[in-house]
From TrEMBL:
One of its GO terms (molecular function) is nucleic acid binding. It comes from Mycena maculata. Residues 79-185 form the ATP-dependent helicase C-terminal domain. InterPro entries: ATP-dep_Helicase_C (IPR006555), DinG/Rad3-like (IPR045028), P-loop_NTPase (IPR027417). SMART domains: HELICc2. Keywords: ATP-binding, Helicase, Hydrolase, Nucleotide-binding. One of its GO terms (cellular component) is nucleus. This is Helicase C-terminal domain-containing protein. The keyword ATP-binding applies. The keyword Nucleotide-binding applies. It comes from the Eukaryota.
């Protein structure tokens, strides 16, 4: 709990935890670093508009959809990335292959990782059998608000005299990563 809420005194935080709602046998995490055509999968903001990146992603999703029963939901890290994919895929024929039904009539949905609407939705057992997260939604480090928040957390840690082992991230870096992981969760 301390890294997530390092700016709060420990006596002001409580924790509640439950078991996972799906069995471990039904859970698999796969990290894909290269596309089927051999392209590197880098989803930083500057790369998200490149048609080759979008094309590799589309082919990965087509291949994955052919293996996964009963559809999938794909989470994008930004509206820009999602909209670019929606523009590129029809031109390349990828979207048509999803819509043609050559994926056994599967239903595929698209959303944003930080979209509050999707949180708490329980899919029926025969829907969205795969959850795909495309890129991680790191906040913009150029944001003045974020920079000030990170500066404050780091100063608070220094004020408390917290010492970290060499190589360990400071409170600001942990906050930044935790914000991203919170959006993914």
């Amino acid at each position: 709990m301390s890294p997530l809420f390092s700016q709060l005194p420990s006596d002001r935080t409580t924790s509640f935890s439950c078991g996972h709602i799906i069995p471990e046998t039904s859970l698999r995490t796969i990290v894909v670093g290269k596309g089927p055509r051999g392209g590197e999968l880098e989803y930083k903001a500057r790369k998200q508009g490149e048609e080759t990146v979008i094309g590799e992603l589309g082919q990965i999703l087509l291949n994955f959809a052919a293996l996964v029963p009963r559809g999938m939901i794909v989470f994008f890290s930004s509206y820009r990335f999602l909209n670019t994919a929606k523009e590129v895929w029809p031109k390349s024929g990828i979207l048509g292959r999803f819509e043609e039904g050559d994926m056994n009539g599967l239903d595929h949905s698209y959303a944003l990782t930080s979209c509050p609407v999707i949180r708490g939705i329980n899919f029926a057992d025969d829907l969205a059998r795969a959850v795909v997260i495309v890129g991680l939604p790191f906040a913009n480090l150029g944001s003045p608000e974020l920079r000030e928040r990170m500066k404050y957390v780091k100063q608070l840690e220094e004020k408390r005299g917290t010492r970290r082992p060499p190589g360990q991230k400071d409170a600001a870096a942990e906050l930044y990563e935790n914000m991203c992981m919170n959006a993914v969760n």
